[in-house]
Design a protein that fits this description.
The complex is a heterotrimer of chains A (369), B (395) and C (161). In chain A, a hairpin with a 7-residue loop joins strand 10 and strand 11. With 369 residues, chain A is α/β, with parallel strands linked by helices. Helices cover 36% and strands 20% of the residues of chain A. Chain A has 15 helices and eleven strands. Chain B is α+β, with helices and mostly antiparallel strands and 395 residues long. Chain B contains 13 helices and 13 strands. In chain B, the strands form three sheets. Chain B has a nine-stranded mixed beta sheet, sandwiched between helices. In chain B, strands 1-2 form a two-stranded antiparallel ribbon. Chain B has a two-stranded antiparallel ribbon with strand order 7-8. In chain B, helix 5 packs across helix 10. Chain C is mainly beta and 161 residues long. In chain C, the strands form two sheets. Chain C has a five-stranded mixed beta barrel with strand order 4-5-6-8-7. The termini of chain C are far apart. Classes of the chains: A alpha/beta (369), B alpha+beta (395), C mainly beta (161). At the A-B interface, helix 2, strand 3, helix 4, strand 8 and helix 11 of A face strand 2, helix 2, strand 5, helix 3 and strand 10 of B.
């Protein structure tokens, strides 16, 4: 029994949104329900909010979830995870046959957080906090160093990729952090932790998204449906001492499970988490691409990856980041990507990640008609 | 085997095949991860399974602020076998413990997972100066926080309203605390089991009238784990699978002051959802025993009424007459509940679900209720008087 | 199985987690607090289902519409529930017990939602709470001299004799 996305609503990304979080969620939900043609008080029978207490600044963030979503006194709950995990729950809820339509939301008001580094550090195991204090991104740098070393990638090659991706965002309706850079400019950019440069990291954006899933016969009545063909994700928690560095092993494992569903990757539009520039290549590698070949293919436009600039151009948004990735793929499959539209592809593969210091990430397979 | 329930068609039933839990204590020496691991290990041993037999994991843990660890689910993930597997953490405040099996149900029923590990853990003790202080941040920052409320206020306000609306006295309510603490004497994980009297409750320190110290469950550390399996698989693991037949959950809006507090409509809504799925039309007749959430003694009464087991305001009469004792017609909290076993927020709810499993598989030992049981309901509650989560199980 | 049998002898590490936020108030709360500054209690009324919200919302959780109108509500109401507080949020004994409660304001809302304020209750004794006579009692907002635009601009709701 298939599950379809029949509506997506979103606000942002903004460099700084001036919303109260409940109003942010409400307005996004309104847009989503309108596009799905459903009344949340009657037609949607499950609501999921994806939030973490410390990003929200409220213990217990679940309390404020139902009303702005339209889920008050209806089946509503919170997933302490990102949008991808919420989508997975919604997907399972519909496949169980107990729910007809489920709405999943995630949002980030990063601009409200004054101690972002301290909170990110709090996600590290207490025994590592002294080491990474003020140096959270060093973890990404370590991973990047090993990756570049083992795949024999040069800093110059990463620079080339960065220039390309940042520029692609100029054509995107959500590319608020896009830049017209030259390789020269990059050579002068500061390193935060060698080999990671500050510019390798996608800046933070405020963003909210709401996705409505529906069961097959309900979705079929809708003029526009993007089907979720399958999804899987794996986790390794925040165990930085036992993680496998240099590769996106969590995606490799997820892809192993979905391998049979993906016959030919050239038929797919690919959107991967690139909140650190090298991650774009690392995530591509985990689904079967050789990194150096991949850079060439991207430069020569042989493969369609993050065509609207990815997170490097739209920014990253905490738990809603995977929402940006799903949105990009959705816009491509529904031919609404505007100037960065790819033609002729009716399938998409979305690769998501929860960000430092977590090793949780997954894959969503989408297809349009 | 397939069943038609109203308009939904469930292909495979979902069963609980084992359970395991740690002791509940005020201050565990074990770390969060060690507590969770211990519970998981016991559940695996109980099922004669290994961690590689588990395909998916659903966990629950309430406020990250207790441990001071952000993204807490990622933190204990590796200690519950969460490596290279999908692990999701669900969170509805106090309702989490029963939300975990609710989500676990659709992990199996969707066809995605054959076996699911359910874990709920809580380590409240790390928070300084006192775990209660963490609850400072659950309030609305504009309309409530400036008044410097304490979590006990909200329960006291609700208790006062309940007593007023249904004319129930403190001494009637105290009977629940007496019963549950006594029941807990037979629970191996119990933290605060003891024989007390109604006088002891009424004479204990008044915190926020009408709440006395012995009306309240304690701050606790603890973890509970259960294993779910698809029907075919369950039958290869155990001879006594207990079927998860109904799930329900609701979240009321956050404005608790705008509502009638005496009766939690949202718990009734969640119960109706679970009963409908389990094919139960007259719960007061068809439910053999129940584990309603009892962080405070009046809560057991209020929730038993919202679960439609008794008429509104009348559950206390059943308690007085001994109907809700283990040897009564409708035992409530035979485990000893939160009042007797302890209240590690998320783990407490799952402990109640574990009790359903133990009773329905005939493994509750000294706690086994006198009458033969076939259908049980467990319920948890959370947030600012908002969350209702319910599961119905049958053998 | 435990090597260290008790908590007192275990090694403990103290860590302080810094979490600071500066949040946008949003339209609903901004206007509510401005109203309080002018010694007014404002709310919003849903044009569709006629529910009245105090504290105000810009969307109706009941019918999920955002066509709400701003209204000023009376500052009188009745006590729906009240308690006597003996301990602080840090679990210490208070010098003087406080009486707090929920006041349902005198404005008809055509739903199970009642406009209400959670606040201190003034002019009542502990006995009033215990014997229940406080519930249903008429009360009126008592304002402080100074207005800062906070819920504490109201000192409490005092008994109307």
């Amino acid at each position: 029994m298939r599950v379809g996305i029949i509506g997506i609503g979103w606000l942002g990304p903004y460099k700084e949104a001036n919303f109260h979080f409940q109003e942010f969620i409400f307005k996004t939900a309104q847009k989503s329900y309108e596009s799905s043609g459903l009344d949340p008080r009657k037609d949607i029978d499950g609501f999921i909010s994806c939030q973490e207490d410390f990003w929200e600044g409220v213990s217990i963030s679940d309390e404020f979830a139902p009303d702005p979503l339209g889920g008050a006194r209806r089946p509503t709950f919170t997933v302490a995870g990102d949008l991808m995990q919420g989508l997975a729950e919604g997907y399972m809820m519909i496949r169980s046959n107990l729910f007809n339509a489920v709405a999943i939301e995630a949002h980030s008001l990063v601009s409200d957080i004054r101690s972002l580094d301290s909170i990110t550090l709090a996600a590290f195991d207490p025994q590592y906090r002294e080491i990474f204090k003020g140096k959270v991104d060093a973890l990404a740098a370590m991973d990047m160093n090993r990756f570049m070393n083992e795949r024999r990638l040069s800093r110059g090659e990463i620079d080339e990729l960065l220039v390309l991706q940042k520029r692609k965002g100029i054509k995107s309706s959500i590319g608020i952090h896009s830049l017209n850079l030259s390789k020269r400019d990059l050579e002068n950019e500061k390193y935060s932790f060698y080999p990671l440069k500050e510019i390798d990291k996608a800046p933070f954006s405020d963003f909210a998204i709401n996705v409505v899933l529906a069961k097959e016969d309900l979705a079929k009545k809708h003029e526009e449906v993007i089907w979720i063909d399958d999804l899987w994700y794996t986790s390794h928690g925040n165990a930085i001492d036992t993680a496998e560095y240099g590769k996106a092993f969590y995606i490799e494992r997820a892809f192993k499970k979905l391998r049979n569903k993906v016959k030919d990757l050239s038929e797919y539009y690919i959107e991967v988490d690139d909140r650190y520039s090298y991650k774009l290549l690392q995530h591509l590698e985990a689904i079967g691409f050789e990194p150096r070949r991949a850079i060439e293919d991207i430069i020569n436009d042989n493969i369609k990856v993050n065509e609207c600039g990815g997170l490097l151009s739209s920014g990253q948004s905490l738990e809603a980041t995977s929402g940006l990735e799903v949105l990009n793929a959705f816009l491509q499959l529904t031919h609404k990507a505007g100037q960065c539209q790819v033609k002729g592809l009716s399938k998409a593969i979305v690769v998501t990640w929860r960000g430092l210091p977590s090793f949780t990430g997954g894959i969503i397979l989408l297809s349009g008609e | 085997m397939s069943r038609l329930v109203t308009n939904i068609y469930i292909k495979d039933k979902v069963a609980v095949v084992s359970a395991g839990m740690t002791k509940f204590t005020r201050r565990a020496v074990e770390s969060t991860k060690e507590l969770a691991w211990e519970a998981v290990n016991r559940a695996l041993e109980d099922a004669n399974m290994e961690i590689r037999d588990i395909e998916c994991i659903v966990s629950g843990s309430a406020p990250d602020a207790f441990d001071g660890i952000h993204m807490k689910g990622e933190s204990y993930s590796s200690s519950i076998g969460g490596s290279y597997k999908p692990h999701v953490r669900v969170y509805t405040g106090g309702g989490t413990g029963v939300m975990v099996p609710v989500a676990g149900w659709w992990h199996v029923a969707s066809g995605l997972c054959d076996t699911v590990l359910l874990v709920a853990e809580e380590k409240m003790s790390p928070a300084q100066p006192h775990p209660q202080y963490v609850f400072k941040h659950i309030w609305d920052p504009i309309t409530e926080k400036p008044l410097e409320p304490n979590l006990i206020w909200i329960f006291a306000l609700e208790m006062r309203r309940y007593m007023y609306k249904y004319n129930v006295k403190k001494e009637d309510i105290a009977l629940v605390s007496v019963k549950n603490k006594k029941n807990a004497l037979d629970h191996p994980s119990a933290q605060v089991a003891e024989k007390i009297t109604v006088e002891d409750v009424l004479n204990s320190e008044v915190l926020v009238w009408p709440v006395n110290r012995l009306d309240v469950s304690p701050v606790s550390d603890g973890a509970v784990a259960l294993i779910l399996a698809r029907e075919k698989v369950a039958k290869t693991i155990t001879d006594t699978p207990v079927w998860l037949e109904g799930i329900g959950f609701t979240l009321e809006d956050s404005m608790w002051i705008n509502r009638e507090l005496a009766y939690p409509l949202y718990v009734e809504a969640a119960a109706r959802m679970a009963y409908k799925m389990a094919g139960i039309e007259r719960p007061w007749k068809e439910i053999d025993f129940a584990e309603p959430y009892d962080p405070f003694d009046y809560k057991e009464l209020q929730h038993a009424e919202a679960l439609m087991l008794f008429n509104k305001g009348e559950a206390y009469k059943a308690t007085k007459e001994g109907i809700t004792e283990r040897d009564g017609d409708l035992p409530l909290s035979p485990s000893g509940g939160l009042l007797g076993v302890g209240n590690p927020i998320a783990a407490a709810g799952l402990m109640k679900v574990a009790e359903l499993y133990y009773q329905l598989s005939g493994r509750a030992g000294k706690r086994q209720v006198k009458k033969p049981v076939h259908t049980g309901v467990a319920q948890a509650w959370g947030d600012l008087l908002e969350a209702g989560t319910v599961v119905v199980m049958k053998n | 199985m435990m090597i260290i049998p008790d908590w007192k002898n275990a090694i403990k590490v103290s860590q302080v987690l810094e979490a600071k936020y500066e949040r946008s108030l949003g339209e609903a709360y901004s206007r509510y607090l401005n109203g309080l500054k002018e010694k007014k209690i404002l709310g919003t009324k849903c044009s569709t289902c006629k529910s009245v919200y105090v504290p105000p919302r810009i969307y109706c959780p009941n019918c999920f519409k955002d066509n709400l109108n701003w209204i000023e509500v009376p500052q009188e109401g009745t006590v729906s529930t009240a308690v006597i507080v003996y301990i602080s949020s840090k679990r210490e004994r208070l010098e003087k017990p406080r009486i707090v409660g929920v006041v349902w304001l005198n404005y008809v809302s055509s739903n199970t939602v009642k406009p209400a304020i959670f606040h201190n209750l003034l002019g009542f004794s502990e006995k009033d709470v215990i014997d229940g006579s406080i519930i249903g009692a008429r009360v009126r907002a008592k304002w402080r001299e100074e207005s800062t635009g906070s819920i504490l601009d109201i000192e409490g709701f005092e008994r109307v004799v």
